[in-house]
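Researcher: We're teaching a course module on how sequence relates to structure. For the next exercise, students receive a sequence and then see the predicted structure as tokens, so they can try to spot secondary structure elements on their own. Here is the exercise chain.
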Amino acid sequence: VGGKPTMPADLEGVEHCISSDGFFLLEEMPSSALVVGAGYIAVEMAGILHALGCETELAVRGEKPLRAFDDLMSDTLVSEMARQGLTLRPKTTIGKVEDINGKKRVTHTDGTVLGEYDEVLLAVGREPLTGPLALDKAGVKLDDKNRYIAVDDFQNTSAEGVYALGDVCGNVELTPMAIAAGRRLADRLFANVNGKADYSDVPTVVFSHPPIGTVGLTEKQAVEKYGEGNVKVWTSTFVNLWYGPMPIDPADKPRTAMKMVTAGKNELIV
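Model: And here is the predicted structure for the students to work with:
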């Protein structure tokens, strides 16, 4: 059943906003938009709107978007956003949204008016779509936070013969991971093949501008796990060959940033 976008009920004027689902229902491109959120979807939606020619701003509560990613990734994204002309609004919490003659006037929690936009897109999280399932009647229990379906390492729920995987379980909410877990489950049930889904070191991609791909530990996580003296880091920044022959000023060509983090005397890539 997957999940659905979270629309915060405590936000005054939330009914004037759209979610990522609403983005795909737009019948015409807005001339201006404010995207609220710091995760995958917010970054991707802001990038799409900006690339299409919409005057776009991205509001995040913290210092920058994608805070859980390695600093090289998030900092490069912020730099590229600025270079492309996409406005980033850090340390911004939305307090109110009003419809003023078809425009959405957005006010910060401190009372400052951020501006008026054709669309305000909230991408502040997702929630599992478990409500309509009446799980309690089937004896399927939720986790301690009463949010996700509780499962063990083999996708078993509290009800015998009932299994759950993917976004409703809250463990690495990525489509390829759900597919992998489903295949392992099908193998056990129908092919007598033992095994379970491995949720460690799952690669992930953000379809931002530029796109981001990452797997494993961030530099900070590696230092926390192995100790600063046991971690070595290699970085490189260069112009991708895709842009090499293009008749663009070298300073305007998007640059690729890469990082490799290793640990231990054998320099294991982590």
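Model: If you want an answer key for the exercise: Residues 79 and 85 are 10 Å apart (CA to CA). The chain is about 20% helix and 25% strand.
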